[in-house]
Fold:
Amino acid sequence: MRSYFRFNKQERRGIFFLLALIGGVQLSYFLFSGYNVQRTPSQFTIDSAMVRMIDSLKTVKQTVGNTPMLPFNPSFISDYKGYVLGMSVAEIDRLQAFRKQGQYVQTATEFQEVTGISDSLLKVMAPFFKFPEFAKSTKLKKPETDKVKTLLDLNLATEEQLQRISGIGPVLSRRILNFRRSLGGFLVKEQLYDVYGLEPEVVTRAMARFDVLSKPSIKKIGINTATIDEIASCVYLNSTLAERIVRYRNQVGAFDSISELTKIEDFPKDKIDRIKLYLAL
Structure:
């Protein structure tokens, strides 16, 4: 075995340089790899603005939790206070739009109707509401006739005005306007009950704020002489009902009253009062 480990001076020098070369290559590899890792740009970036906002919101939350809430006038609630109390951006925007019209909320119930906040949130906020004394006295002395003047015209209402009613959002407000367009204009405010998806309690709140102040001019349909297509042009009557009305008229004779239509199969009896507005003998 000794013969295998005997090297002359030249061989030892060659082995030394070979080991040095191997070590140098390995050292260069690690240094080069480390350099690339450090210089490789990260795929994730930190949004410093968002971080600052989150930190500020955390600070606000901690401050609110340690600071007693003082009474305030809800008509002038700020974005900051609205956020602190748990209001959404849309609810705050509704209040500000209401204020831009020069109007003020005078009761907690009116505040909920304007903003659309939930009952649970109102229960938390209402104890801190402080309404001006002049607003209370004005509300008490307000004559009953003035109440009608504050009502908005249902036939001129916009989506934004309708959405101030609690329970009416963008979808329902557009649906109300589409239904109004198909009618040619509301004749009575009770026609809101016929809007698909509008709950009765929401209709009640809407009718407290809106009324038909400008009625459209319509041409009534004579059920004793009208054709099937003419009868079916009424929003409340489809072609099937129109055919049954004409068939009944041909078999029994002319109608003596509009209420006689309720004898026809599948006629919407609950809507007869509103259907009468579009029909004539």
Remarks:
- The chain has three domains: 70-142, 148-211, 221-280.
- Confidence is low (pLDDT under 50) at residues 134-149.
